[in-house]
Structure formats: C-alpha cells, structure tokens
C-alpha cells in the first residue's frame, strides 16, 4: 500500500540546538571530513546522527512502516522469542522500530562511533522496553574497504550468538558497501553481500531490507528522478529482488512507494528531504545453508 509520511522536524524534538548542529557541520567542512559513506565519515557523524531532527523523523517513519506491516512480514509476535540481526545498524533507528515485537537485537556496524551511539541508545531502551535485549558490536562481514577489520570473535564464532537469526534486517546500508563500479560489478557485490547476510539466518528465517528506491525511468529525465524522491544510481528494489532470487531465497515480496518527506531549517534555509522507500521481504528456504 502506498504511504506518505510527512513531518516538520524541529530542533526542540531533536535534543540538539540548531546553532550546535550548524557549528558542527561547518567545522567538519573546514576540517575536510569526507562526506561519504566511509567508516571515517560515520565515526564523525555518529554523535549527531540520532539527534538530528530529520533523522528522528525518519525513525518515526520506520516505526510506522514496521508496525503496520508485521503480518506482511510474517513476524510471529506470539512466539515470545525472536532474535534479530540489524546489519549496518548505525545508531539503531531500524532496531528501535523492531524493539516492541522481538526479544533480542544484535547489531553490527563497521563504524566504532556508530556502535557506541547504538549502545547508548540501547541502554535507554532497556528501561522503557525491558522485554528486548539489544547491543551492537563493531564488525564488517562484507569488507567494502578491504580493511580486513578483525571480526569480533563473538561475531565469527560458528557456535555463538551471532548465528541462526530468526530475522536479519538492514536499512540504508547497501549503498555504503557496494562500490561505485559499473552496474554488473555492483550487482555481483550485492549478491555476495546478501548471501553473507542470509548465511546468518536460521532455516525459515526472514530477511527484511528497507532502502531508497531507484528511478527506473528514462535516464534523460534525471531531474525528474531527483524530485521524485528516488535515487538515480546504485541498487533499488529490482536489483535486491533479483539478487535474493539468485541466492535462492523464497517468498520474496516488496512494498513500494513509501514516501518520506521532512522539512527543517538549516543555515537560514529550508532543507527539504523527500525520499521514496521500498521494503523487501524474503525467507530462507528449509533447504538453505544454515
Ligand atoms: C546510512 S547509515 C544507516 C544506519 C541505520 N541502518 C539507519 O537506518 O539509521 C549506514 C550505516 O551502515 C554502516 N556500514 C557501512 N558499510 C558497512 C559494512 N561494510 N559493514 C557494516 N556496517 C557498514 C555505516 O557505518 C552506517 O552506520
């Protein structure tokens, strides 16, 4: 079902003053912090990430998206024990949307700064939602930057807690770990990455991917794509679905056209964010690898 979530983000709700955020952003530009998807960028932005009003508004959008589609996901809330892996979890917006419905969330992110913030937020959630245990660990199962970052022993342990998940979820991380290579190379990277994540699911486990949709129309209409809330490059729902079919996932379905709009004032200008999201679901077959 199409859905539009519209918000006006205020700094009062963000817990950080506008002056503080503007000063931080200016300082980053002056210091030459790369404004890209590298761990260096996410380490720098981690302190601001879950305080920024537009991100908080996206958090609310995700809460709504998840709460309204529990049946579609086939998430058995009566089960009482659902173990989730949130990959590329950041400060935990998608995790927080799942908290009311699951019992344990383990998160992985390759930015140490993001992991620290996730765990700070999780400490707060422990009191408001004691039924769900959650924590994050730094690691990189996909190794986009070939840093060969040592994988935490806990993540690597084949008999440990970071295996056999009921649910693996991921939001807005694909474009960080797929390179800027030509489309066919990007697609191969996507297939490999999704295969690695599916490897962490138990038989019959569920994979949920939420991301910004791609514009599949005429490439000459680039400006149209821009105003349309979709991205022009990278992986959208079609690539994700094709990759999931390729790795043998079953029961694949997509919810499209989830519009997120938010406005806030920054540097004396209105900053409008308009994004169109999709959510893909897939189940690991009984015959799949465990
Ligand atoms: C755009 S943020 C999204 C964070 C969060 N999922 C959310 O929806 O707010 C992307 C996150 O993915 C993480 N990330 C990027 N590449 C990664 C990789 N190869 N392994 C683990 N985490 C990664 C980044 O550090 C960052 O926290």
UniProtKB/TrEMBL annotation:
List the coiled-coil residues. none
The Gene Ontology terms for molecular function here are:
S-adenosylmethionine-dependent methyltransferase activity
- Stretches assigned to the Methyltransferase type domain: 85-208
Checking Pfam families in the record gives:
Methyltransf_11
Q: What is this protein called?
A: Methyltransferase type 11 domain-containing protein
Q: Which organism is it from?
A: Alectoria fallacina
Give the taxonomic lineage as stored in the record: Eukaryota, Fungi, Dikarya, Ascomycota, Pezizomycotina
